[in-house]
Amino acid sequence: MAALIWATSFRTARTRPACATASTPRRSTSRRATITAGTNRLRDNGILAADSVARRINRESFLLLGGTAALLMQVAHPLVAAGVDQHSDFRRSPLRRLVRTVDTTLAIVYGERATAESALTRIGRRHGPVRGQAADGRAYRARDPRLMLWVQTTLVLTSVRWYEAVMGRMSDAERDAYWAEGKFFAGELGVPEHLFPPTYADLERYEAEMLGTEVRPDSVATAVARDVLRPYPWLPEAVYWPTDALSAALLPVSLRGRLGLRYGAPQRLFYRAVIVSVRALRVLLPSWLTVVPQARRFEKAQRQRRKAA
Description:
Blueprint: H1 5-8, H2 29-36, H3 53-58, H4 67-75, H5 78-87, H6 94-110, H7 113-127, E1 131-133, E2 139-141, H8 145-167, H9 172-188, H10 200-212, H11 219-229, H12 237-250, H13 253-258, H14 265-284, H15 287-290, H16 293-308
Helix pairs in contact: 4-8, 4-11, 4-12, 5-11, 6-7, 8-9, 8-10, 12-14
């Protein structure tokens, strides 16, 4: 997924008084022109090239099943968790947050340029007032480029790993192209170019480095992760077993134990069964179930453009 789940979880109306004057820095129009020049081939009126890797990957409905793992990776960072804990109403309305996240992501990937840019602007606004102090005394702010880089990293890596588990390994060129598009989105939100790992392989090395240093869940992160995994705590534990198993499969090994997730023989067997089932359902079910509606509308418009050309 190519937009920030963390960003779309922040509430916009109830911000803290001390942060009320925070502003959202303007994006550089010259920088945008530089970045978009590299994705201009076969451009429609959206923000990405018509044949972009992000559009090919995000069209798949099954990709949504990896969202929980990406969110867990994000909140495993203590400063991200502090922001969610202090500024988000995720705990009260998890499904509403999820729907808003998905809608925002797909608007950016498949919407017309004005729609995509409006969605990016909304994310930027939600970042602005979000700042505070974590449990260990460290200050945080949602517009910290290093935190935004970590969030985008989780989305790109989780999407690729889950997509490849079902569809087969992407080429190195495709992986690099998908990360290049991820860098574009993060750059539009304020991450400077010099922070980005250059290639997908570099991104994986960056992930390993972060997991060994900064991404070590504290008590707040563990509690927020629990809320992610148990959005409705009154439901029986058995209801959440499938989500736990799938999330554990997609998480880095070092995070499973830290977040209290098991990944033994039953979970591995379930994960393999899910992959087989998803592959079969992609063939057997109609496209209105296997392809997200935003992608279907986009692809229909593309067909109409080709006919009219």
